[in-house]
Amino acid sequence: MQQYSSLPEQNSQIDATPTPLIKIQQLRAQLWLERSLNHLQTSLNDCLLAASNNVLQGSSPEAEICQTVVNELDSALNGDRVAIALFQPQETVARVCYVSHSSSRAESFVVEVVGKKTKKLRLKLQEVIALKDLQQIENQQPPSAWQLTDDSGGVMGWLIVATTFPQSDCEPFSALQAQLRPQLMTRAAKYCATALAQLRQIQSWQQHSQQLGSFNQELERSNQLKNQFLANTSHEIRTPLSSIIGFTHLLLAQGYDPSKERHQEYLKIIQSSGKHLLALINDILDLSKIEANQLEVQWENVNVPELCRNVLALVKEKAANKGLKLRLELDSNVTTVVADPLRLKQMLLNLLFNALKFTSTGVVGLEVVAKGVFVHFIVWDTGIGISQEDQAQLFQPYFQISNVTSRHEGTGLGLAVTRKLAEIHGGYVEVESEVNRGSRFTIILPFTPFLEAKELGEDRGDGGVTTSLYPLAITPSSSKEILLVEDDLPNGELMQTYLGKLGYHVTWVKTASEMWTFLTELEPAVILMDVNLPDGNGLNLVRQLRENQHYQKIPIIAQTAMAMKGDREICLAAGVNDYISKPIDLSLLTSLVAKYSRV
């Protein structure tokens, strides 16, 4: 033992060095701890596996886990009673819900609450324990209770053990076990809480799995609708495109020289097909924006008689071509309604065009009636009518009534868009029809939908509402100069040619730098500003113009392909006076330019 003689003097005083027997007992105690915890973890894993396979019988998965914990600990602690008391929030106490089954004498297992006055807690089922007593036995040494916490740290309950710690004359191994009991219970409480959290996750997955079954069915239906949507969209787009491309090719064919009448006929077909294609795209965009809750709605006080007369004027020619009469009946009690005039007109036109399409002889009418706080816009006809079976599908996107003469006329989206627009206005659409006895479609809207004050805009005092975010006192100019800022060649040439024929002198520039150059030489009555330019953002240019005193009062009209919700407001906020979306409506362009000039 000479090797120990050189140890420092302070270490030589340790004369209580554990004997090999004590070391073995310590190792046994540590092995007992790990073995007990391993058994517990294995049993809990079996419970979770059974729960995930839905093979538990006779009890809930939560009860199975808690009972497993108390039984495994009872076995490890050689028969000492173990219990789990669950927190009762409504009663602000804990109740013993699970106990181990090693002994039938529950009364013999007690936990002492040491304080000014020692009391004993009996561990038997349904025993109520005050929270202050639980806190006391948690903190006393050695502890007799350990918290079970959830993922957020909230207390679910307590793991409690009723045991008698060995006296000084107990066997060394039992004494070592007693020292490791707090560590066993602490880790067991953590295992129990983790298992309960994993069980909740498994139950969540199982619930999602059940929902997934119905979701998969809905997904399959959605895929079918998507395929139908793509097929119908492809057909609807290709039909007018075929006419546009075919007749354009014919007119451009070398050596082909049609008569003037035939030339005009081809151009009318191209124009009609282009309008049909644009209507299809607009309907698809409207439906998409409505579904995404992104449709832009401009609330105004709408003059109902004036709007209805304007709508009938738009369908007058089509009615005359089919030899149909148009009839308008207005209730004198209906003068104005709060709505988006563009969307209200769109709803009425959709219904009127449908009525004209399915009516060969007779009358198509528009009737407006006040009923309480609602106004009814009724479009009726003497046409072929609609069967009950078809009425059930009328408002489905792309649904069209089987009719050989008109199957390819229209997009099949008009009624779907109309119904959704009515709902946005706080109303709905009704239909009444009999086969061969005509149809009645009724748009029912409140006179004043529930709106925030800011949605109505600022009342002008003349029955209208202004929505301009950059109001400027603009005096129409007598100048014929128009500065067109547009980098797209076809659009630029179209607007320059069209406005030129109306008597304007159009200076066309394609970049921001060219715009600044020509502004030093021109005093334009109006600037037509494209939003996307190769060397700058058009809205940034507008802001720069508004910051310059020389250009603050020049009217600016933004013309852009931006047509989503909020785009109009973005343009107005930048400082433009008006906004027109592409493809350019030439009649609208004419009215906007004329608004700021006196040509």
- How large a portion of the residues is in β-strands, by DSSP E? 15-25%
Number of helices: 16
Strand order of the largest sheet: 5-2-1-7-6
Name the CATH superfamily classification of the largest domain: GAF domain
> How many structural domains does the protein architecture include?
4
| Shape call | elongated
Question: What structural class is derived from the secondary structure elements?
Answer: alpha+beta
Q: What is the CA-atom radius of gyration, in angstroms?
A: 42 Å
Point out poorly predicted stretches. 1-15, 165-169, 404-408, 452-473
| CATH class assignment of the largest domain | Alpha Beta
CATH topology of the largest domain: Beta-Lactamase
User: What value does the average pLDDT take?
Assistant: 79
The number of strands is: 23
Second-tier CATH architecture of the largest domain: 2-Layer Sandwich
Q: Please outline the major beta sheet.
A: 5 strands, antiparallel
Alpha-carbon distance between the termini? 121 Å
What percent of residues adopt helix (DSSP H or I)? 40-55%
The multimeric state of the shown protein is single chain
